[in-house]
Amino acid sequence: MPEVTGTEQAADPNRFSAEFGGSPLSGRITALEGNGGYMRVQFNASGPAEIAVGEEGVLELHDGARFRVAVVEALPDQESGSYRVKLVGRG
C-alpha cells in the first residue's frame, strides 16, 4: 500500500492508504454516515479510472487500523474519485 507519512497524518487524520484489485491507492475519508458502517471516500487523482460497484478492498487508516470495505456507489462527482463504501470487516 502507498505510504502516508507522519506529516501527512498529522495534517489530515482522515487520510488512508488502500488496495483494490491489487492496485495501491491513497485518499481520504470525506464523511462518516451514522449507523450501518457507511462512509464516503475520495481517492487521489493517481488512483484507478474507475472502481466497480461491489468491488472489495482494504483501507488502512492513519493509526494502522485495517478494514475491508465494499464499494456501494460511485458518487456523482466521480471524476474526483468519490465513492460510498460499506465496512464489511476488520483486517
Automatic annotation (TrEMBL):
Domain of life where this protein originates: Bacteria
Region called Disordered, residue ranges: 1-24
Descriptive protein name: Uncharacterized protein
Protein source organism: Deinococcus sonorensis
